[in-house]
Amino acid sequence: MNYEISMKKCIELARQAEGNVSPNPFVGCVVYDKKGNEISCGYHKKYGQNHAERDALLKLKNDVARGGTLVVNLEPCSHFGKTPPCADLIIERGLSKVVIGMRDVNPIVAGNGIRKLQEAGIEVIEGIFEDECKKLNEVFIKNMTLKKTFVAIKTATTLDGKVATSNGSSKWITSEKAREEVKVIRNRYDALMTSSSTVIADNPSMIHKCNIILDRELKTVNGYKIYENKRVIVFHDENIESPNFGAEFVKTPIINGKLDLEFVFNKLYEMKIMSVLIEAGGHLNGYALKYTDKIYHFIAPKILGDNNGRSCFDFRKAEDINISDTFRIECTEVFGPDILLTYYPIEV
Ligand code: AOF
Ligand code: ZN
Q1: CA separation (Å) from 176 to 9, 130, 181, 211?
Q2: Cα dihedral sign for 285, 286, 291, 297?
Q3: pLDDT digits (tens, 9 = 90+) for 250-267
Q4: Among the options 53, 75, 181, 279, which is catalytic?
Q5: Could you give the domains of the chain?
Q6: Is 241 a catalytic residue?
Q7: Per the confidence metrics, is the pTM higher than 0.85?
């Protein structure tokens, strides 16, 4: 049995739950009998439902996994939560080896699951494909370790870095294939965030289970398509009274004439919104950059050539090229004629 291949399978299984498990992590699990044959697999499908290990083991008759190996991308839990501890079930089913991608960062578990297994005489192998496992659960890790909402930005530009012409024309920069991928990306996030300027300029639907609008002066009104979504949260200047129509309004302090984003993101964490994808213009993107954990940047093979065209991150006048924010490109993918760069800020 190749642990790396098994762990890859765990990650693929776990990913099938995108959009369904927040605030829980993505977890997948593969079980082998004592001869090394795969006999079951499973994953954590929905918040509140069985964890991956339980999902995989309960498909098997009592004794089949005895002496076998269980591979899982996250340390099995040791606590009674929505379900009993996975570590207990693994012990009960008599597995002799457990292979783990990463330790659980949830302080209730953190190492206790591993200890429990070892005390029961089970061999534990840790750290297989650890970086991949951590990437899979980057949102959960940020939530658990920093008690903060994970923030991502999605943008789409021409080769010369423009998101729209000077008069705001922007439909469409990227191909249909790229826009299909945007739907996949959106599904990974608990909420989508945009600005009143984008709502007014483009009247996007941005269909999602939760939409956030930053609208300091309450310029958007019911009637824009975005308000047709299930849940809409509007952050606005605390000095303006909240209106009363089908959305949640949050009074927000103002800093330097703008909504205080620190307040906004803290509030979102309090509201149990664990991750947010920003889709807006250069002003909000630029303003939110310092809070951002990840960027999805589509680039279409087009040149606008318009010096006044709008840029995707517009937040300062920099006179020295050495004054720039820097990033680490994680991967490049191709969608039709377009590319998607995924990058992370470099910690300084
Ligand atoms: C596992 N396997 O598949 C998952 C784990 O609210 P609960 O009861 O579902 O517990 C959530 C915590 O359990 C979560 O914060 C994380 O520490 C762990 N999630 N653990 O062994 C799984 N989803
Ligand atoms: Zn568990």
Answers
A1: 29, 34, 9, 22
A2: positive
A3: 999 999 999 999 999 999
A4: 53
A5: 3-144 (3.40.140.10), 149-345 (3.40.430.10)
A6: no
A7: yes
